[in-house]
Amino acid sequence: MKLREICGKLEKIASVGLAADWDNVGMLAGDPEQSIRRILLTIDLTKAVLAEAKLQKTDLILAYHPPIWEPMKKVVAGQGTSPLLYEVIRAGMAVYAMHTALDVVTGGINDVLAAVVGIVNPQPLEVKEVETSRFCKLAVFLPESDLEKVSEAIFAAGGGKIGAESKYSKCSFRSPGVGTFQGDETSNPTVGQAGRFEQAEEIRWETVVPAAKLGAAVKAMLKAHSYEEVAYDVYPLLEAQAEKGLGRFGELGKPIAVTSLVEKIKKSLNVKTAGLIGPRRRQVRRAAVGAGSCGPLLREVIHRDCDFYLTGELKHHHALELQEAGVTTMCVGHSNSERIMLPKVAAKLRKDCSGVDVKISRKDQDPIIIK
Known about the structure:
Udp-n-acetylmuramoylalanyl-d-glutamate--2,6- Diaminopimelate Ligase, Chain: A, domain 1
């Protein structure tokens, strides 16, 4: 498959439009037209992971954490923060990062952690609407004689598809009205005469178009339309975020002792040690999770009366605040709280990308080893 096709599959798993403003997700290196035969999934791109990727002749490294955080002025071997990226590009490999897009999306990391803890009907700790560039609304004003020709042109260019896996096609809405205009002496209106104020029976026709295909749809629409000057509008769409956001919280299916819950989590995340804060002898009835470094969400955890909070890591003052609030908190290590998601993404890619070999890195591990 082409890299751009793989990116399309990843966009459906976790749209880049869901990521935090400060994040850097999506395709970070590569040629959209290059062929992808082998994908290697990892939390972090390290020297060990890069060596593994080279050995496996990987075409695409799918990293959870973006290897590019800040703008780079140089990509030079052995200098500054760019050597790994230099080696990736030199080896002809592409890099794609998912990070907070995968944190926020329904079915992403935080939902997986919520299932590990036993939260029923998990809800986001922090919800916000995110403007996504995945889709636009295209509205065009036209005479009835142009209706079928223009609509079919836009449909052929990729517009009008809605629903999961674009199950429905040629979707649009039509509403009649009256358009007014007055051309100057040099105009050549399809309806009416130059230099006169005109009122014309028109139809407002609108549909949804993927942002990536908007240019082609507009070009096709202008070609099919009979007007000398076409009136049309393009609106970026907000994706409904009611079920999306950072972190998760909710009631457990049944109460569980802290000691039993801790052992259950350690087994599920394949960790032998973890940091514990706050009361250890209690029954957990209401819990929250936040993958990675989610200390800033602690006030939401406290505000929502959670007994237990599972996260990757905390700053010292965040740990103290949770302790004083009486919230039992478990820190399993930053990337240890995220790695459980890699098999889920790999399984989805194996299903959607026929003929592509998808593997999970064996060299990827949390940089902090506790002995």
